[in-house]
Design goal:
single chain, six-stranded antiparallel sheet, five-stranded mixed sheet, 25 strands, 5% helix, signal, HYR domain-containing protein
Length: 405
Amino acid sequence: MTVPSSVRRGATLSAAVLVGTLLPVLSLPAAQADPGCTTEAAPPGELPLPLPLPAPIGPGDRCDDSEAPVTSSVSAVPAANTAGFIARDSVTFTFTGAHTDADADPIAFECQFFNTPEAPADDDWTPCASPQTYSDLEDTRRQLGGVETPYTFRVRAYDAADRGIDATSPTNLLLGTGGAETDLPDTDQTPEETSFKVDTQRPVASIFNTPFDRLTPERPMITTDSPTLRINGNEPALVFDCDIDGRAVPCRDDNVTFPDLGPGTQTLSVSVTDRAGNTSAAPVTTTFTVPEDLVAPGRRWKTRASRQAFGGDYLEASAYKTKLTVAGVDVREVRLLATTGPKSGKLKYKTPGGAWRKVRLGGKTTKRGQVVVVRNEQSAPFTGKIAFRVMSRGKPVQLDAIMLR
């Protein structure tokens, strides 16, 4: 079949027009990375033909956005205290990101949250959004070597539009040209990070070697005005809060001496607060009665110094009918701290309206600071003065302290 010359001339002319149109496109150099680039999406291109051709057939003009967004303003609720602890099993983080240039692309975030000695791999990030909450957290526990591994939260911002684009990919598919020379990271390379430990358990305090009294176990009498008790807690680095009948007294996790206590029944209360700020659900207590130190009423009673005696001294008298009185209110029980033994003198006592009765100071061996029960708790109460009288000659009566209760 012979093609008419006029048709051939038209086809040749059309081909020439097409080639002439494509030559400028095919000869364009690849675009260079642009420090001022704010988006890596290639603008659509058109060829000067009756029908437009969609991108990426157009001219190569892709650029590389060299400024990744930055992560900022990370905060946690609850915030860790100065010791790095929170006292709840959930925490919520809020965070923001921002472009440092005129970029208007949307910003997205990725997070890491872990409680392991080793951090997750660099490619192990999870998409997240502010606010981000983590719940049902287990308390931080001491691991091998006594190390407490904290929880760590990391967050990084990224350009949500640019990160899915390889800036070096060509915009001109015919020649494979038009891509940027580089594809710098579109993700913040310096994530924000915060760490904390979790402790949701209330601590518990303990008092060891509490006073014991076989006669009145629930209200023991102690034989010193400066008792030493062992105070302890079930967690490390506890802060101790102690008081005796509402009066604050210093204490710590150790053997603690409470010096120069006044006479009467008193209660020691101990609470503890841990590093997370948790406080004992209830204080631990112990109640005891402190005797009253005896003071010489006159010259017939001599004051003898002794480091082993209650209050550092005791009274001594050996003259017949030497008297000593002590006042009390609604008193049933009376005890003395005294020296007992074969060399001790005789002593009697009398309550208001009562008769003189014997105080037993005898014994096979001499013992100082012994508890001598004068009246027990089942005795009838009295208010007024109880009188003591030496009823021997030459043998000393040594009295250290008295308990009226």
